[in-house]
Structure prediction request, 109 residues.
Amino acid sequence: MTTASDLLWLVGFPAIFAAVLSVVSVAVRGRRWSRRRLILTASMPLPSLGALVCVAVFARAVLTPAERCGVDACGMAMMFATSGLAYAAGAFLLGAAAAAGIVYSLGRQ
Prediction:
């Protein structure tokens, strides 16, 4: 059984780590981006990769003929993809919050 703390370790911390690493690397290089652009750019990479995988799984499940699906295998794949998209959205929000904290602590404009 997956608990909320397991999901935080699997989804939240990698997203936060990637966002913090991205915002620090862009901010240190001295690019004069706005706060919004820094936050959105830093929080996008990891959740977008996860969302692309989920969309591919969903599309493959939808396009598979009923004869090849077996007993509700395509339905389970579509449910996995839908919940994965929700996790990707949550990871984006966590990454955006972490990136915003770093950007505002650095005093960027």
About this structure: The mean pLDDT is 82. The CA atoms of residues 9 and 77 lie 23 Å apart.
